[in-house]
């Protein structure tokens, strides 16, 4: 099913499920589609309370005929569902991760941005993708990403006409500084998330790093911080991201 566009019957079912009060995750499960696909379909066609399947299907057909870039054509990450992951578990973990980020003092939008980027295998999202995923205005995304860059939790790079946002390399260390008393929560969240996504996947590996770091901190905060910096440097060298002369 991934890669195949929604058809008219699926759109009719989406409208019915929304009327029945189902969430995006449950609708995705019933249609065997990623929850993110359902959310983007509804968001770009009037929103939860104004979604009209007929109009949505006509709009999609017109976009296909004109071969104009549509939301489906954006570089939106959906491989989170290509490793036989449960959409329900992924969505539940996403909410928990947002909550953990908020415990460090971040606003809701800033926490959601970090969680969205963290839970993509490629580890980055454009401003347009963040607007679509969060269903907020471009100005809101701009304010939050600017703040996150100011505190070094995000950095940006230009990708053609777009700006892409990446997690700061010292995200965990700065989180440790701002919320040391919650290290055990971070450790538990990261390791459990790694099991959900799979240790052999990019997201799983990223979550494992997070969990391992905060597990070390619980035992001995200061000495563990240095151990992690050494460990992370070795990993970067093993990946070829740092040369011997650096």
From TrEMBL:
MF-aspect GO terms: transposase activity
A cellular-component GO term for this protein: cytosol
GO biological process: transposition
InterPro entries for this protein: ArsR-like_HTH, IS30-like_HTH, Transposase-Integrase, WH-like_DNA-bd_sf, WH_DNA-bd_sf
Sequence segments annotated as region (Disordered): 43-64
Domain of life: Bacteria
Pfam families linked to this entry: HTH_38
Signal peptide: none
Residues of the Transposase IS30-like HTH domain: 3-45
SUPFAM superfamilies: Winged helix' DNA-binding domain (SSF46785)
Official protein name in the record: Helix-turn-helix domain-containing protein
Organism: Lentzea waywayandensis
């Amino acid at each position: 099913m991934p890669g195949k566009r929604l058809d008219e019957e699926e759109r009719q079912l989406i409208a019915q499920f929304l009327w029945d009060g189902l969430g995006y995750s449950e609708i995705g499960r019933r249609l065997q589609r990623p929850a993110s696909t359902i959310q983007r379909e509804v968001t770009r066609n009037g929103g939860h309370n104004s979604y009209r399947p007929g109009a949505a299907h006509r709009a999609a057909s017109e976009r296909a005929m004109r071969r104009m870039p549509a939301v489906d054509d954006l570089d939106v990450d959906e491989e989170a569902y290509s490793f036989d992951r449960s959409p329900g578990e992924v969505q539940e973990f996403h909410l928990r991760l947002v909550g953990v980020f908020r415990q460090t003092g971040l606003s809701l939008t800033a926490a959601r941005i970090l969680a969205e980027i963290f839970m993509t295998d490629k580890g980055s999202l454009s401003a347009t993708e963040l607007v679509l995923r969060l269903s907020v205005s471009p100005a809101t995304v701009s304010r939050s990403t600017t703040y996150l860059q100011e505190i070094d939790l995000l950095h940006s790079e230009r990708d053609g006409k777009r700006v892409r946002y990446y997690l700061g390399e010292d995200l965990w260390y700065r989180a440790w500084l701002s919320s040391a008393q919650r290290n055990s929560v971070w450790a538990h969240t990261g390791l459990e998330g790694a099991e959900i996504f799979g240790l052999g996947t990019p997201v799983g590996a990223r979550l494992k790093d997070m969990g391992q770091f905060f597990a070390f901190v619980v035992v001995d905060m200061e000495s563990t911080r240095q151990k992690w910096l050494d460990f992370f440097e070795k990993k970067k060298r093993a990946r070829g991201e740092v040369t011997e002369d650096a």
